[in-house]
Amino acid sequence: MSQSGQKVKYPVSESQKENANVPQTGKTPTLPSGPPGRVVAVIAVGGRSLPVIAVHPQVKLLAATLNADDIAALAARQCYLPGSVLDREGPLPEKTRTRLLGRTISSGHHSVIEHNVFTFGIRGISRACSHQLVRHRIGFSYDQQSQRFVDFTRTEFIEIVVPPNILRRADMLAAFLQPVEASVRSYFALVSAGIAPEDARFTLPNAFETKLVVSANARALLHFFELRTCQRAQWEIRWLANLMLREVRRVAPGIFRFAGPTCVTEGICWERDGRDCPRLSRSGAEWRQRRVAWTAEEGLDVRESGTRADHGS
Question: In DSSP terms, which residues pair with 268 in a beta bridge?
Fold first, then answer.
């Protein structure tokens, strides 16, 4: 095993470095080429030397609803308009659009932004991270690289995700790589013996890199960003969420100026351990605990007093 720490020699395009703006027409987007990262090991397996590359998240917005801010503002306008938005000619004035989005989104009237959908290409995250990502179900659609149908013995390199606090320590990195190397060798041995990749994949670790195409509407994304850009979120999905947020703010700044953790957007931190968060003091937010609206013991009295809606049994 070699822990050279050398930079990987695969080409990195300018669009990859900059996370280029999304095309909002029928033009096919250019995807980043090659995994950016660091070679942390070289495994001799299957008669060849296979680099193991520690990668990091990459996000590119592949498609988005055209004029998302305008669509949301028009939807808001229709709610309060006696006539039809079809009677209007041309887009809303910027001042009107900003006012409508501010009033509706800040008041929790988020249905107006559900009309907007955003599609991301994602690479460089671990299977551990993707398991967190796909827990966001309502308003999201996912397609993920299949470990059943992709034969990783045919790849030119192995991509893994290494936590930064391990990557920066040589002794911890060596300990981290031991089971990774063992799992890769086992995978190659099983596939070479005729075991199907769908069964050989059981040896692969959570650190194994994965790729996805993800679509979500703006309302679902606001909720996602509220949870996952919080300082208390796990570091990898927080990194991913901030990259996604940067992308959508380029095409829908009016909607996503309201995106972020509640300490920033509401001035309130609801996290259980939020009092220990360094962002709390910097943001000037107030730490609170959620109040219990009612309890089972008092439920009957509350229902009878009319202070809680009775939705039936």
Answer: 286
Contact 38, 6 (CB under 8 A): yes
Give the integer Cα–Cα distance in Å for 102 and 174. Answer: 51
d(CA 119, CA 122): 10
- 36-50, 95-109, 117-131: which is most confident: 117-131
Residues forming beta bridges with residue 126, ordered by sequence position: 209
Closest among 214, 203, 85 to 152, alpha carbons compared: 203
Q: Which of 228, 238, 250, 272 is catalytic?
A: 228
* Domains defined along the chain, listed by start: 1-65+116-260 (3.30.1360.170), 261-313 (no CATH)
- Helices and strands per DSSP (H, E), number in the chain: 13, 9
CA distance 232 to 273: 8
Closest by CA position to 218, among listed 37, 10, 36, 69: 69
Helix (H, G, I), strand (E, B) or coil at 164: helix
Better pLDDT: 278 or 20? 278
Assign 181 to helix, strand or coil.
Answer: helix
Model pLDDT for residues 149-207, shown as the tens digit of each residue: 999 999 999 999 999 999 999 999 999 999 999 999 999 999 999 999 999 999 999 99
CA distance 258 to 244: 14
Backbone CA torsion sign across 135, 136, 138, 140: negative
- State yes or no: is 201 an active-site residue: no
Residues 60/51, Cβ–Cβ less than 8 Å = no
